Amino acid sequence: MRRLVLLASLALCAGCGLKRVPQAILDKLPYEAKIELLEAENDLALAVDRLDEARAEVGRTREQLRRAKDRAGAARSEVSAARDDVSREVAGLAVTEAEARVAWLRARQRVNVRDEALAEKALTCALARYEETRLAAARKAKLEGSEDYDPAAFKQQVAACDAEYAVKRDEVKATDVEAEGVRAEWEKARAALAKKTFDARASPFVE
User: Looking at the domain assignment, is residue 170 inside a domain?
Assistant: First the structure.
């Protein structure tokens, strides 16, 4: 199972350009040393799950956005079909709510895309820590060839990755703040529609 997680991690992080300890060196790692790798492997598994969920959220929101656009189109059709002032007012509010919903979902998708990039970076950092741990285990076991790899270089790649992760995390936070402002506008439009239709035309859920 752990090997499958590692293979999945390497596949998801193809092209990361990380320094790695050759498997040929680690093949002779004693069992007790392999136990020391468990925590790093668990972190890898969590990072893979986190990235899978981030990608799934992008897909879910894409589908919600498609439905919201259809809803906005239907709302605009109601305006021309309205036969009295009340109907026209309700239809106008429905258009405003539907368009605000689309704007909110677009804003949320921007957050999702950046969150996906953050999860990808987290996986890269987990791999970097895993390689650092593997080198430490190999050198501790005095495996032939492990002395050719500089622990400081592996430590530095972890630090560099963590710094890049922090930047992406701040980008997600900033985009999330912007998205919440758009959400507030949608909530305002939804409340206006709900008030006019006695809650019959404004679901509290994002579709």
Answer: yes
Q: What is the pLDDT along the chain (207 residues), one digit of tens a residue?
A: 455 555 556 655 655 788 999 989 988 999 888 888 888 889 998 999 999 999 999 999 999 999 999 999 999 998 888 889 888 899 999 999 999 999 999 999 999 999 999 999 999 999 999 999 999 999 999 999 999 999 999 999 999 999 999 999 999 999 999 999 999 999 999 999 998 887 766 554 445
Per-residue three-class SS string for the chain: CHHHHHHHHHHHCCCCCCCCCCHHHHCCCCHHHHHCCHHHHHHHHHHHHHHHHHHHHHHHHHHHHHHHHHHHHHHHHHHHHCCCHHHHHHHHHHHHHHHHHHHHHHHHHHHHHHHHHHHHHHHHHHHHHHHHHHHHHHHHCCCCCHHHCCHHHHHHHHHHHHHHHHHHHHHHHHHHHHHHHHHHHHHHHHHHHHHHHCCCCCCCCCC
Say if 30 falls within a structural domain. Answer: no
Evaluate whether residue 2 is within a structural domain: no
Query: Does some domain include residue 177?
Result: yes
Number of domains in the chain: 1
Question: Domain containing 95: what range?
Answer: 37-197
